[in-house]
């Protein structure tokens, strides 16, 4: 709960400080890069959690990471602020919410597509065009293959799921048959 509140608050604040859409994209890339560094090096999280390490040392590490990743000034300032306030460990949620804010401001929508077999570029393009027509937004698609679906696709748009897979159809058929046998 606190993690979500912190994530939303800092994501909105950073977004409010950036007016240029190109700078928004760059800030998102910077935040993701810093977050990825934290994931790759689990010792960093332990370092920032440790109460006996001085805030000055933590600040120096934040600045060093920002320099190595060539992070923009506003993101670097945010990272320094997060460190000072002991909120740097909430970076994952901040990135998640900032991505949502950036997508909203740029009129984009992210769609997660799970299919039984890899989709071709032509299939992805047709799906993007159809969703763009229906939703009226620029569609960003990420794909995943799950062979247990047998066939068909499953779309996740925000918190909504459209499941048109063979596995789901078989499950519906099974429940229908079970209900008829009971009746």
CATH superfamily grouping of the largest domain: N-terminal domain of the delta subunit of the F1F0-ATP synthase
Can you write the helix and strand succession as a string? HHHHHHEHEEEH
**Oligomeric grouping of the chains:** single chain
* Second rung of CATH, namely the architecture of the largest domain: Orthogonal Bundle
State the CATH topology of the largest domain.
Peroxidase, domain 1
Number of strands: 4
Provide an overview of this structure.
With 183 residues, the chain is α+β, with helices and mostly antiparallel strands. It has two domains: 2-104, Orthogonal Bundle (Peroxidase, domain 1); 108-182. The chain contains eight helices and four strands, in the order H-H-H-H-H-H-E-H-E-E-E-H. The protein has helices spanning 2-16, 21-40, 42-49, 55-68, 73-84, 91-105, 121-135, 166-182; strands at 108-115, 138-145, 152-157, 160-165. Strands 2-1-3-4 form a four-stranded mixed β-sheet. Strand 1, helix 7 and strand 2 form a beta-alpha-beta unit. Helix 1 (2-16) crosses helix 6 and helix 4 (55-68) packs antiparallel against helix 5 (73-84). It starts with a helix and ends with a helix. The mean pLDDT is 94.
């Amino acid at each position: 709960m606190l993690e979500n509140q912190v994530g939303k608050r800092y994501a909105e604040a950073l977004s409010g400080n950036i007016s240029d859409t190109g700078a928004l994209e760059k800030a998102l890339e910077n935040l993701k890069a810093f977050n990825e560094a934290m994931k790759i090096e689990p010792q960093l999280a332990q370092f920032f959690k440790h109460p006996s390490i001085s805030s000055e040392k933590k600040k120096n590490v934040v600045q060093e990471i920002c320099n190595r990743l060539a992070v923009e000034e506003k993101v670097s300032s945010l990272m320094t602020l997060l460190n000072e306030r002991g909120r740097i460990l909430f970076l994952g949620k901040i990135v998640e919410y900032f991505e949502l804010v950036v997508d909203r401001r740029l009129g984009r929508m992210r769609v997660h597509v799970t299919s039984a077999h890899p989709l071709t570029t032509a299939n992805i393009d047709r799906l993007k065009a159809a969703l763009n027509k229906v939703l009226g937004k620029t569609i960003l698609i990420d794909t995943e293959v799950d062979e247990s679906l047998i066939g068909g696709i499953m779309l996740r748009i925000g918190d909504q799921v459209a499941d048109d897979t063979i596995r789901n159809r078989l499950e519906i058929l099974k429940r229908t048959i079970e209900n008829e046998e009971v009746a």
